[in-house]
Design a protein that fits this description.
171 residues, single chain, mainly beta, five-stranded antiparallel beta sheet
Length: 171
Amino acid sequence: ASATPSPAPSTSATALPPDSRATDAAIPWVVYQSPDVLRLIHPVSGTSRPRRVLPNGPFGARHPDWSPDGARLAFTVDDADGTRDVWTSDWDGSNAAVLVDCRVPCRDADSPAWSPDGTRIAFHRIDNVDGRNPGSSLQVVDIATRAITTLASTTGAEYAMAARWSPDGRS
């Protein structure tokens, strides 16, 4: 079985105040993971304070990755059912929603990485079968259709994790 794309409703997040939005392309945002929350900061501006990306939840957000155009984020969230799901949101945390809902036997859908063209996200999946992790899968989800393709699988203690795309998106 593969991770299931989720039609779950989105979780509303309060957008950043207008004065905190990046209006000058020369001043980039950096997203980073702090304990259980994602934060944004301007690395160039000495006056920027870190701001939570998802101030109203979900909590347990980790492993952020920017879309190629900088408009969206992909990240993972630890779900109440003990699994880890892949989510996406707008750059400021608004329009946050589950993209891949990791359901039993899936334990983790993790380490999302946007394709260079912004149409797909690679991630790894680890299952839990009878209390053991029988290996992992490297999977790709199509953003538009939510179709998931398994590219590679491992067995035993070998894990395919934290994949990244080649610059041209073909590898």
